[in-house]
Amino acid sequence: MAKPSAFASLFGRSPFKPMQEHMRVVSRCANEVPGLFEALCAGDQTAVVEIKERIFALEQEADDIKNELRARLPKSLMMPVDRRDLLEVLDMQDSIADTAQDIAGLLIERPMEVPEPLKEPLLALTRRCADACDQAEKIIGELDELISVGFGGRESESVSAMVDELNGIESETDELGIQLTRLLFEHEDSMKPISVVFWYRLIEWIGDLADYAEKVGNRLRLLLAR
Question: Which residue from 1, 16, 127, 193 lies 20 to 30 Å from 89 (Cα-Cα)?
């Protein structure tokens, strides 16, 4: 008799376990981004390539989980969660990994140099965006418990507080992104015009990591309100 796949076993325990596993992989993917830019700042292109490969592998793992989950998720669930709501959260989670892959891919397609004044602000932004993804992972980790209590009670209040914290982190990343953009503007004249264009794009994508993490939390808050 054929043994069930690891995913089938995971899904058999709970339809929400794969959602949580997907977010864990997504968070690991996002957490490679600070190291990617640390290597870039240090001029270590070998490390940049190695981290890019890890990001691409994790993004593929997240895609595999996402595709399996979409295929196996029942059309209707006898619980207060609509299938479409879960798939929307899944897509938002997946956007985090996709964005991390876009960032890593650009740094390989076009090797970039980091102007000295931008290094510390850039690293601060990437680390705080990774913090936002970690917080989103913690929130999704509460999904099973929320389901068991019908999206109410103390568990609901606890998750709402966690979403508030996530929103605060995302606001910090917005401010860090604005500060970094201002620095870039101040140093544009000393940089190649095409490099300036790509740096603006990279700063936007880095901020998107936190934006998508916040959307994951806010979407779960909407479920709590129903």
Answer: 127
